[in-house]
Amino acid sequence: IVMTQSPATLSVSPGERATLSCRASQSVSSSLAWFQQKPGQAPRLLIYGASTRATGIPARFSGSGSGTEFTLTISRLQSEDFAVYYCQQYNNLYSFGQGTKLEIK
Amino acid sequence: EVQLEQSGAEVKKPGTTVKISCKVSGYTFTDYYIHWVQQAPGIGLEWMGFVDPEDGETLYAEKFQGRLTMTADTSTDTAYMQLSSLRSEDTAVYYCQTIAAVGIYWGQGTLVTVSS
């Protein structure tokens, strides 16, 4: 299954909302996770099961979607949120999107 | 607390083999697959394959078949990833990962540098 994330780069000002998209080439049901990665660090789980926030993840992070279309929304962006975000499907084998870089506008 | 602790950085010559370990704690080792993920410099994440610690079953991504071996030792709760015939393009950080019922957990990553 091919996972396609858009946009490749997203420029947003602190305090504003960011919306990241992930599309699957075929249905992955709700077996979709979102990760945040900062330079030199391992990916950090934000969302699994398409919409369940991982332990300790702030409420400003939310996930939605099922089947082939998924969205990660970050409301009221804070400085520490600027990073690269990846989606991963684990319904039919396993595959990652190519990432979205969220940068400060 | 679930933890995946990986072995340290490696420097290897082309044509040789690297073996990385991933020791897990905080859950029953045989309950979930251990996956391995490659991240080349400046590149995204690529799933390499998994090992089922319960019975040793493996599944590898086509790109790595023939060079990749994943094993699991239930006596030490440790998974291993071995990549052979190393080439410069294998220079990357390698992560182990487990997808559990209530979360997805990662090791800290192991940098493998392939250089003559």
Main beta-sheet strand count, sense and barrel state of chain A: 7 strands, mixed
Shape by Cα distribution of chain A: globular
Structural class of chain A: mainly beta
Query: H/E order of the elements of chain B?
Result: EEEEEEEEEEE
Query: Pairing-aware structural class of the strands and helices of chain B?
Result: mainly beta
Q: What is the assembly state of the chains in this entry?
A: heterodimer
What does this structure look like?
The complex is a heterodimer of chains A (105) and B (116). In chain A, 0% of the residues lie in helices and 50% in strands. By secondary structure, chain A is mainly beta. In chain A, the strands form 2 sheets. In chain A, strands 2, 4, 5, 6, 9, 10 and 11 form a 7-stranded mixed β-sheet that branches. In chain A, strands 1-3-8-7 form a 4-stranded antiparallel β-sheet, with no helix packed on it. In chain A, a hairpin with a 6-residue loop joins strand 4 and strand 5. With 116 residues, chain B is mostly beta strands. In chain B, the strands form 2 sheets. In chain B, strands 2, 4, 5, 6, 9, 10 and 11 form a 7-stranded mixed β-sheet that branches. Chain B has a 4-stranded antiparallel β-sheet with strand order 1-3-8-7, with no helix packed on it. The mean pLDDT of chain B is 97. Classes of the chains: A mainly beta (105), B mainly beta (116). At the A-B interface, strand 10 of A face strand 5 and strand 10 of B.
